[in-house]
# Entry
Amino acid sequence: MSTIRDIARRAGVSVSKASLALNADARVRSETRQRVLDAAVALDYHPMRAARSLSSGRTWSLHLLDPALGATLSSGFFTRFLRGLHDGARDGGFTLTVTVPQDEGEARTILKRLIAERWSDGVVLMNPSDDDALLTDVVVAGFPHVLLGRSPVAGVSTVDNDNVAVARDATEHLLAAGRTSPLLLNGPEHRTFAQDRERGFRAACTDAGVEARVLHVDGPPEAVRPLLEGHLDEGLPLDAVVAVADPHALVAMRTLKERGLNVPTEVAIVGMNNDDLTRYTDPSLSSVDLDAHALGRNAVELLLAAIDDQGVGAGHRLVGHTLVIRESSL
# Structure
């Protein structure tokens, strides 16, 4: 196994100079750095991460922490978001680790240890509540972070979709097709993304002069069934459903079919996240693609900027979305 001394000897420089060159130190001339890099490639040199951490003061690791992660591990959105995080971390020379806490209390305990013990150089947080102590903790600690979602706490770096527009676009698509009795199967009321999507849904309904009905699903997708059955049992009119996520839309589709209602002839449905399975359902499911991979990439870019410059202010990025129309809403 080659060492830094072998690199220095081959490049004709001191060991300290070789180390500076490999760490892209600005004090090393470009031609010298290239000579060192060429020597490293020729000798198939791979520095030990522990030594790299000691010299740089970094762990070269990023951490994903989500108190609602257990409910999202199997979703296509999470898979693509995680891939975006991984790709951005890899390109920046970092690795990515993931923690699966039981609840927000455990997540806060883990975060405090992560900050105090420097498990990583920065943290990605997901699924904020409207009063989120996790976010207050990272802001007070001045710890590099980025949140997927809208933050209820000032000073937090965020990457997100425009969730008001996401729900509004899905709803307007249904209303433009002549639907007059839409229902939003939304997420938990305390989640900021659910609050924003309800705003978009209600705005579209108000503009169209139709009544906006909203049900909040706090639990797994199967929790949609009793809520939707209760809505139908009350005899309330229903000809369109906007669902907070594709699995919720699929449970709604099955529930409607079991009640003898045809999708899309009698009830049109639009989901969100554009999971891979949406094109294979019967009928195929219309869905809003949130570009989860781009969300992950942008999250890492913001996080690495904060790590490189501890004085950087809170950054904010919005990633675009696309309504993918399939059979369920035609």
User: Anything to note?
Assistant: The first strand starts at residue 61 and ends at 65. The two ends are 63 Å apart (CA to CA). Residues 61-161+292-321 form a domain with the Rossmann fold fold (CATH 3.40.50.2300). The chain is about 45% helix and 15% strand.
